[in-house]
Amino acid sequence: MGADIRVENLNAWYGQTHTLKDINLHIPANHATALIGPSGCGKSTFVRCLNRMHETNPIARAEGTVRIGDIDIYKDAAPVEIRRRIGMVFQRPNPFPTMSIYDNVASGLKLNGFRNKRVLDEVVERSLKSAALWDEVKDDLKKKSGASISGGQQQRLCIARALAVDPEVLLMDEPASALDPVSTAKIEDLIFQLKSQYTIVIVTHNMQQAARVAEHTGFFLTGTLVEFDKTHKIFTNPSDKRTEDYITGRFG
Amino acid sequence: MGSLPIRSANFERLNKARRTVTDHFVTGLAILSTIVVLVPLVAILGYLIYKGASSLNFAFFTHIPAPVGEQGGGMSNAIVGSGVVLGLASLLGIPVGIGAGVYLAEYGQGRLLGNIIRFTADVLNGVPSIVMGMAAFALIVAKQQHYSAFAGGVALAIMMVPTITRTTEEMLATVPHAIREAALGLGIPKWRTVLSVSLRTASPGIITGCMLAFARVAGETAPLIFTAFGNEFWSFSLKEPIAALPLEIYKYAISPYDEWHRLAWGGALVLIAMIMVSVTLVRIFANRGVLKGGH
Predict the structure, then answer these.
(1) Are residues B99 and B212 both part of a single domain?
(2) Do B192 and A111 contact (CB within 8 A), yes or no?
(3) Cβ distance A106 to A164 under 8 Å?
(4) Are B196 and B114 part of one and the same domain?
(5) More confidently predicted of B17 and A94
(6) pLDDT tens digits for B255-283?
(7) What are the extents of the domains in chain A?
(8) Which of A200, B46, B146, B157 could anchor a disulfide with B92, C-beta 3.0 to 4.6 Å?
């Protein structure tokens, strides 16, 4: 099951640049939440703070409280443990090129020392089925490299890889922006199915996509969260003038 | 206005002719350079086979050198000795070289220690091999009061390290950042990411670097003069002086005897063959089970 996310007074910096300013937000469990906003508004930094990927950059730092379920991820646990509970899918598909499709999916378990072959087989099959990729690759699981399939398949492989470690939250940073419309539609269908089991946070530049997949939407601008509400409300009757300007295409 | 399309069509055609000529010229240059590189290589190899093949017989591979004036004899002890010294050098030099390269690429970026290691490796790469031999002599032979296979292995290992370190660093730098992020995002610890993702992705290039370093030191004579020293008899001990092909070739080639000259050619051919076989074997072994990426 998914966990909810409570963010309190979150601030983040890259070197001297203050990229996130006092973010307060509650993301409900087992729903999809979209984050929109112009390039450079901090929405990617925000999701990277949710699994402590932000701090893998030596000049980056973050302050504040992020609670996922009942753990305070900046206090109660090491970054490695947090990232096992919070899966991440990146903008460009990034399968491990030297590993087979099977090993890509199993990597999160295998490289953390899990060796039981029978369980691995099950997890790989279940994850690929959840990512709607099983039927397309089941005959080449160990024969083909993760990088040899199409871009859209690679992205679904990356989703399967993230699901295999059984996370509570799935962060998706513009997961379809490098894909063609057909592959994009498949990813959106997938988000629709997955949100019954996982809490999904999706960053997107595509407002129709936000409207299609997410129950809640947050609008970021220059490092602040301008508005957070039901997606329907954001797109039909936003309370903030800046949100309205952005969604009607007056800037950004 | 009416003349513009014609003029631009002319311009287009002229430009196209010039581009085609330039294209052919540059392609020709590349082919010419390849030939210039290959001719001496093939010539040397051909001449070696021509001169050396006739002195290769069963005894060459099974007998130790015959005393002066006697016919026959072989280089079996030198072949084995080269294997021992090179094996030891690889065993010491490859892990240290790769380890230092990993530090430079994954941990030492922008740090003082990283810059010192990088600078040292570059300087070490340019040090003449005879100086390496003297260093190993001073560090090991002089302390132990005798020449040894071990000292020879260490001298060659030190020569291998800078090449391997710098290649490893450069190959790791070509591994896309996105792939490292994928691993870290799965909650895989950094050391495991380096080992199973970064190094594995960069391994074809790193193996090439190791092979280059190996092939380079396999023919080194100077560092062995002060260390492995050479031996006319069988020895398998790391503590004793040991025979090596480059030393035998050197000794036989500058001798006044025709029979020894013949053996020197044979030795040179065997040395080249050993390098080619080991490089090929490593390549086959390393490519086994590797899945080809699509792009």
Answers:
(1) yes
(2) yes
(3) yes
(4) yes
(5) A94
(6) 888 888 888 999 999 999 999 999 899 88
(7) 5-247
(8) B157
- A175-233 confidence digits (pLDDT tens): 998 888 988 998 999 998 899 999 999 999 888 899 999 999 999 999 999 999 999 99
CATH of domain A5-247: 3.40.50.300
**Residues B271, B130 within the same domain:** yes
Nearest 10 degrees: CA dihedral of A136, A139, A145, A151? Answer: -10
Kindly write down the DSSP assignment for every residue of B174-207, as one continuous string.
TS-HHHHHHHHHTT--HHHHIIIIIHHHHHHHHH
Q: Is residue B163 part of a domain?
A: yes
In the structure encoding, which two tokens stand for residue A22, read together? Answer: 């006092």
> Which residue does chain B place closest to A100, by CA atoms?
B291
Residue A53 has its nearest CB partner, among B181, B193, B196, at B181
ipTM above 0.90, yes or no: no
Name the residue range of residue B51's domain: 4-55
- Say what the pTM is: 0.83
The minimum CA-CA distance between A164 and chain B, rounded to whole Å, is 10
Relative orientation angle of helices B258-287 and B76-102, to the nearest 10 degrees: 40
Tell me whether residue A49 is exposed, middle or buried, using C-beta atoms within 10 angstroms of its C-beta: 0 to 12, 13 to 18, 19 or more.
Answer: buried
B201 in any annotated domain:
yes
**What average pLDDT does the segment B206-214 reach?**
93
Check CB contact under 8 Å for A96 and B189: no
Same domain, B212 and B127: yes
Considering the domain architecture, whether residues B114 and B132 belong to the same structural domain is answered as yes
Q: B65 and B208 share a domain?
A: yes
CA–CA dist B156, B165 (Å, integer): 15
Residues of A with CB under 8 A from a CB of B: 51, 53, 56, 80-85, 87-88, 90, 92, 94-100, 107-108, 111-112, 143-145, 147-149, 158, 161-162, 165
The residues with which A25 forms a beta bridge, in sequence order, are A7
Is B103 found in the same domain as B169? yes
